[in-house]
Amino acid sequence: MKKGNAKKIVTDNIVIMVLILLVIGFSIGNVTFMKTANIINLFGQMCLNAILATGLTYVIILGGIDISVGSTMAITGIVVAQIVLRLNIQSTPLIILLQIVCGVVVGGIIGIFIGWLIAYRRLVPMICTLALMQAFRGLAYIISGGGPVYGLPNGFSVLGAGRLIETESFPTGIFPIIIIFTIVVVAIFHIILTKTVFGRHIFAVGSNANVAHMSGIDTKKVTLKCHMICGITAGLAGVVAASKVNNGHPATGDGYEMFAIAATVLGGTSLAGGSGSVARAMFGCAIIAVINNGMTLMEISAYWQKIVIGAIIILAVMLDMAQRGKSE
Amino acid sequence: MEPFLQVKNIAKDFPGVKALEDISIDFYPGECHALVGENGAGKSTLIKIIASIYKPTKGQVFLNGKQCDFKSPKDALDAGIAVIEQETSIAPHLTVAENMYLGCEPKKANGLLDRKKMESDAQAVLDEMGLEIDAHTICATLTAAQLQMVEIAKVISKKSKVVVLDEPTSSLSEKEIDSLFTQVRKMKAANTTMIYVTHRMAELPIICEKCSVFRDGLKVVEYNIKDVNEQTIVNSMVGRELGAYVKVNHEAREEVLRVEDLTRKGVFKNVNFHANAGEIVAFSGLVGAGRTEVMEAIFGATKITSGKVFLYGEEVQIKNPEDAIVRKVGLATEDRRRTGLLLAKSIQQNIALPNLPFHAKYGFVNVPWEKQTSEDYMEKLKIKAPNIQTLCGNLSGGNQQKVILSKWLAAGIKMLILDEPTKGIDVNARAEFYALMNQFVDDGGCIVMVSSDMPEVIKIADRAYIMSEGQITGELVSEEITELNLISLASPVSDESK
Hints:
Chain A has 328 residues and is mainly alpha-helical. Chain A has a domain at 35-253. Chain A has 14 helices and two strands, in the order αααααααββααααααα. In chain A, strands 1-2 form a two-stranded antiparallel ribbon. Chain A is globular, with a radius of gyration of 20 Å. Chain B is 33% helix and 25% strand. In chain B, the strands form four sheets. A six-stranded mixed beta sheet of chain B has the order 6-7-8-3-9-10, sandwiched between helices. Chain B has helices at residues 43-50, 73-78, 96-100, 115-128, 144-157, 174-189, 204-207, 230-238, 291-298, 321-326, 336-340, 347-352, 356-359, 367-380, 397-410, 427-442, 454-460, 483-490; strands at residues 5-14, 17-27, 32-37, 58-63, 66-67, 81-84, 162-166, 193-197, 210-215, 218-224, 255-264, 268-276, 280-285, 306-311, 314-316, 329-332, 415-419, 446-450, 463-468, 471-477. Chain B folds into two domains: 5-238, Rossmann fold, CATH 3.40.50.300; 255-490, Rossmann fold (3-Layer(aba) Sandwich). Chain B is globular.
């Protein structure tokens, strides 16, 4: 019996095991990998994907998908940049507040729109968000005037690029604010998903929408709210991305949806719906970030990195299939 | 006469459980041999071994005297062994002919599909069976009973030598069951070896010659049907004297549900009935009469065109299941695996599901309440499972039904609508369920039960309404509930044959 238990522990936590192996591997491969500065960098690189994956997890557990998140990122980044620029806002706290509010409100409205199309107009999520991905990207170019919105005050970059705790060896600061922000966002949505009635309803609808309906759950409302949350996280990722480079760029987020979905799936969330976890998606983000970071340090071409990430995703999905096959 | 199919000393072990031990049965051609036993007794496992879906841990299968060395289900199929499951394996988007010849389509000399031959061959088999089905029909448009007939046609067209029917009648009406039995008799006359698995004891004397009783993985006894009665077989299944069901008389109390002129265009019309606390009201009728649709409409899952629903004398507007649940009305759906339970979730999660909002703290799930309530009901209803974390997909039908009942009891439901609650559940589990139903109404609850099982309706209903073609054709009270009355009221008005 003990053997069976050990096997189960490995398969349930295969992602964490792989992560540990990768970390060990890259530490041996390059001395710089385990340096504090690099580890901090690594977490910083994870953040955008982590925020995106959080909202995407909700939608995937529901049994749907949203591939327009990259385009949403561009829109919210440009909107807040335009507001700060045109209204000539200089105060840093106000700018940060504006960034967060913009991310939530604009992203939320986009999410509600998507959710409405999917829940009440019965559009297929893949097709719907595929179309919007294109449309929103176009919209981003229009509202940005075709190029980046730049010339923003320094306070704009605090959220995404600012660091706390300035010391002699680290004059620009050690601890990236973006990491704190990400942890807060991820924690809030993780708790909502795991501890609230709404969270349970999402799992129920994703598991079997008919049963959920017959148990008194308003499946349409649940769907709408999930997409709203996905929109909110995409919106927040967008303003953070803009803050990082201190401008609002219409090409922001292009292709990011794939890494977010990959991280979610690597984290054990099944694309069929009904199960998943925000916390585990973070491990998925970590794997992707570790591979990118480690391979870059070892001076392996970025093209090879893409192949490796692709291979890992296939392996993760194969594992998911094998797990599900066993339990049936 | 020599047996055509023999299983000798078959044993099957799964990790942690012995599903079958030392099973030996001889199946003869031209005979129908029944396999009976409680759920979990091993009947399905034996069938899967015969169909080569499982490999036996010990023992052999012999076909026509020769030992079988099947490596996969395809080998068994090629050897002429066909299994018709409860859930039809028909591709809904394909036509009847395409389904019948799936995997063995007739080809022309140039290798292309010979569609004309396929369709005419298919139609010939269908006509010979006396069915009025066109081989060109897309299967998604057929009823469950018709789909089953198509499966049988498939088996006949392959000239299968061994045909196994696994609980074929649980979704069929009386008329359709007659059709099925006619086909069984024809197959027996053609010397096919038939194996029949059922929970409906009353069917055995009609078409089966022999019967093997399974209990806890063992074959306890084999009977010649004509030598024994139903009670003896049931006792062998359970291993003790299972008292014949004693009908409980209930005192009807205050009116709980009244439905006036309920209509849904094209589905049901002018449905009028009432149900009181303390009574069990049955809805009988043929499959497709509209009973499930009426119940779904009352529960708010579907819309109505016109009509009124009254609860405790007051008119109510139930627009969705949430409205119904808030008013203490619950519905246990017809297909518990597809619409009754979240199979991938635990007993605890399923019992909690409709109750989450009522016990939540500021939107957060009340986990202690959930755990306590689930454990209480697991004990009260004697749900057989390792613990409340067990996934519902792993439970037997009877236990799944108990979980569904628990979830409604936990919600404080007073008006319980049950749609075919004992479908596919064995005799013992049924008796337990009836006891729970009786207790529920004795405690002041009201039950409306849709059931196509006439012996069941006669056994436990205080009153019965019969529906036919979307309308209520009659109401029977106590002694009036007889098989004859139920059948005559259930037949479509245009049907003169009865």
